[in-house]
Every structure is written in structure tokens, then in C-alpha cells.
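Issue 218. Parser rejects a valid record. Input:
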Amino acid sequence: MNGPQAAGAWISFVVGAQFFGLAATWKQSLYQWLGASILLCGAVSLVLTAASSSTGAIKTVGGLIPGALLLAFGLWRST
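Output the parser choked on:
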């Protein structure tokens, strides 16, 4: 899980974990849900990497879905 395919998975995992700190700091439980969702995507992507799944599946779960979650959350909270 140290290969280049795991990079996006680790980034999603760490970004998701950081949202728990933001949730505690700003006292917004909604950030816990966002963080858990992104962290879960990163964890699943790491499992897919370890299982030597297709690159497309790894990038979709570890990059595309977390990015869509962040975009949707940002758009939703800006209105």
C-alpha cells in the first residue's frame, strides 16, 4: 500500500480524519459525517489497492467520490 496507486487513498483518508478536528473546533456535527464519508472512501480505496483492483476503481473510490462529496457539501453550505 505504498505504491503510487495508494497515494489518492491516503490523501482521502487523512483529509477525512481532519474533518473530525474541524467538527470539534467549530461544534458542527455535520463535519463528522463528511469526515467519516471521506475517510471511509479512503479506507475502501486502500483495501482495493491491497487487493490489486483496477486503477479505475481505486481512483473512483479514493478520489472522485470524495471530491464530489466535498464539492456537494461546499455548494450546499454556501446557500
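Fixed in the parser; the record now loads. The longest helix spans residues 55-77.
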